[in-house]
Amino acid sequence: xxxxxxxxxxxxxxxxxxxxxxxxxxxxxxxxxxxxxxxxxxxxxxxxxxxxxxxxxxxxxxxxxxxxxxxxxxxxxxxxxxxxxxxxxxxxxxxxxxxxxxxxxxxxxxxxxxxxxxxxxxxxxxxxxxxxxxxxxxxxxxxxxxxxxxxxxxxxxxxxxxxxxxxxxxxxxxxxxxxxxxxxxxxxxxxxxxxxxxxxxxxxxxxxxxxxxxxxxxxxxxxxxxxxxxxxxxxxxxxxxxxxxxxxxxxxxxxxxxxxxxxxxxxxxxxxxxxxxxxxxxxxxxxxxxxxxxxx
Length: 296
What we know:
The structure is a single chain. Mean pLDDT is 86; it is low at 1-25 and 207-212. The chain has eleven helices and eight strands. Helices cover 48% and strands 11% of the residues.
């Protein structure tokens, strides 16, 4: 009997600690406007607009798999306190779509993909023009829930537009005359919208999510294609295991370069608040290196 009672006490303490940790991970700590976002894409876009005028909480932990994430109990607590909940799409984040149905009357819900023309590729933010539309929607929402901060968000909005214009120009110039026009990605199909405008094709080991079959036969076939085309570099994502990329590189001698999908992010980059435009500039530099693009 004593053993059973001891076990019950231990389980109760563990459950209490889990609840405390879960709530602490997504707890609001100020009286500023409260915004909950699904993952890093809406997080970085929203932060670039609000600056320090609102509190933004991200449900997806840094490094977590965004397509199959299961929210903690703390997520429900945060949503009940939030002025707004922003996520990308029902298709990309079904768990966020389920959460959106549970919010209170005071919480505005914004699905960023709802006003964007449907695409086979759900990674819509990789298209600069669609990213601009996403920011427009966030700005309109902020004007409704926090009109007192309009001057700050409008200024930040203009700054982001200027950064995005420079980014478009840099990609156009940097990827216009490359020796190679195929990106071999040892990851999932997240970069088609980014590469298509520049005539660059994408070959990926997985489908549109990280959950793909990586058989020895499939890897061997990819290695043969890389050798036949004399492709000098392969690309991978910085937050996934490097094992597959290292296997392919060992068979081909290709250099391994990272690409950043922005939907998930490393703990270090999150702590440094690395922005959408920062990550896209990293992508550009690695693409120019891997595709052997001349400097201008």
